[in-house]
């Protein structure tokens, strides 16, 4: 796992598949956005310990490369686990999550990602605090929950207006080829995903942090809007 400082308050945690983020308030109050694949928890907790204490783990959606380490991080740090109300039953393992509706070109990408993920499942957090669109979480000067369905039904983004930072989960991504901003892949409903892309692009954002691909660390709002226009997501 690589740890990369993006801003003094913001670190990226990069895994073989996907990535998570640590946001720091004050001297030691940490929020983890997504938790990496199974087996990542101990490494995340060790890296976080150098920066402070993880108080909460906010999950953007239920896919295993985002929730696999959540239970272990919570057990090691005492952190609260948070997810959208539509996503929480899947995160807890009470119901199965709906599979993506693949476009043909996505199938080999998905097969490669599955191959690189740990096999054998993972322990799921038993307790998940449920949130909804418009809720404001106590970090980053007030982090607003933005429901962004399409990748999954309960996908969320997190917007920190005071800092101009946006966490998109997998609703938006950066191309591994050229770093350009693009619609996220492996969606359950592409049309809803496009609508969510447009909603996220309309936010006042300077730094955009994706679940996959390099973050945009300056002028992110215009980069998102320019890309969203190509999908017809904004005017």
Question: What do these coordinates show?
Answer:
The protein has 235 residues and is of the alpha/beta class. 25% of the residues lie in helices and 27% in strands. The chain contains 7 helices and 14 strands. The chain has a 7-stranded mixed sheet with strand order 1-2-3-4-5-6-7, covered by helices on one side. A 5-stranded mixed sheet has the order 8-9-10-11-14, with helices on one face. It is globular.
Quick overview of this protein structure:
The protein has 235 residues and is α/β, with parallel strands linked by helices. The chain has helices at 41-49, 64-67, 70-77, 88-91, 106-116, 190-201, 220-230; strands at residues 2-7, 10-14, 19-25, 29-33, 53-58, 80-84, 129-131, 136-137, 143-147, 156-160, 165-169, 172-174, 181-183, 207-210.
Distance between the termini: 39 Å
Number of alpha- plus pi-helical segments: 7
Q: Give the overall form.
A: globular
Q: Count of DSSP E strands?
A: 14
- If you average the pLDDT, what whole number results? 95
Q: Descriptors for this entry?
A:
single chain, 235 residues, alpha/beta, seven-stranded mixed sheet, five-stranded mixed sheet, 7 helices, 14 strands, globular
Summarize the SSE layout with pairings.
Elements: E1 2-7, E2 10-14, E3 19-25, E4 29-33, H1 41-49, E5 53-58, H2 64-67, H3 70-77, E6 80-84, H4 88-91, H5 106-116, E7 129-131, E8 136-137, E9 143-147, E10 156-160, E11 165-169, E12 172-174, E13 181-183, H6 190-201, E14 207-210, H7 220-230
Helix pairs in contact: 1-3, 6-7
